[in-house]
Queue: 2 jobs
Job 1
Amino acid sequence: MANVKVYDMTGKETGSMELDDNIFGVRINEHLIHMAVTQYLANNRQGTQKAKTRSEVSGGGRKPWRQKGTGHARQGSTRSPQWRHGGVVFAPVPRDYSFKLNKKEKRLALKSALTSRVEADKLIILDDLKLEGIKTKEMRKVLDALKVGNKALVVLDSLDRNVILSARNLPGVATVQAGSINTYDIMKYSTVVATKAAVSKIQEVYA
């Protein structure tokens, strides 16, 4: 089992925590990580883009001029794509971009993403994260004490309004509950900051 240092809110080391190798020490599957990220982004697409084809635009009921003798190129309809107000060739139509991943694949992708953060020393564990009020400055002070970069994902074990609202105005910082983590968020943010309780909950849910 991997041992990761545990810090307090001032950045002082207070101990260590053993991580479950079945979650934080698996063989990294980059293909599944890519598929999970692609699925997340695809499932968020609206798919409402639409343009009219030549069969849907107005006009074009008759041939604009006779076939020969005018000096113009022959034309059959004013709805042709080369005409102003003509239809679009291969126009996009509303569609569903979402696709499915098996439950085992999604779990392994998540475990691979978590393992990658452990191997890169980008998983920081806090013994606890509590703020007395909603203060962005205090949240920034905590992250600076932990020497976190510009992009960080803060994982909480439960809904903490003070922490969530304090982190909301920090660019590049996001909060998520342990039961709602996903591969996309883990890979998007360079550092994962999690409380001990949140890590325990992740190990309990995904064991």
Job 2
Amino acid sequence: MIKGFFPNGVEQRIRDSAWWQKAAITPDNHYNNQSGIMLTDHLEAVHANVSALFQKPESGFYKELFKMLSDFNLEKNNVADELKIVALLHDIGKPAEDKSLVIAHPLTGKPAHKRHGLVALMAAMEIFSEVPMDDHQRMRIYRTVELHDISYGLFREFSITGDEPAEDKWHYISHKIDPNTGIGLYYLLLFKLADTHGHLHLNDVTWFYETVAAQYFQPRGWNLPIPTEEDIR
């Protein structure tokens, strides 16, 4: 069973960081610059959405979704705690994003574009450098932060080319987050339901669920339910 931790003080460590202070004076690009909505407002909204997600009555879509926790031998409260931390970090790198710049990946050393997910990973590594944490748990948080937006990028590519990611692509993404089959994708699928603040359209969310269900989960005997917009909103 995956061990969890109780993030007492960990969330405050994020909010006390220089990364958070920079985000607090950065307009949230989901809205216009005159809205007064800052990036930290978005992070807090997604954090609240994660909390609300894990308090949903277990019926219909959510009954089937949370039933998968036992398939993966996961504790519901532990997953919620980890994803709340991901919520506070996922877009915190946007003020320092520079997609044209290639830097060494902080975990692998390989060349990587300085996208906001990568910068957010760097922030997480800095903030948690002295926080005791299980290695697998640490990597789940780091990589979920880094890859939180990858399904949107794949959806945009699909919208242009009509090409869906193959099974090996989904496995590669999932395994980056957790070595146990399917857990990484499950984390991303859960987080996708919460990361909707400021998003007018949800086509990428349902596409993500439908594609992963058909190409990755169903062949392995797992029934991933598909949400409607009503389930998400």
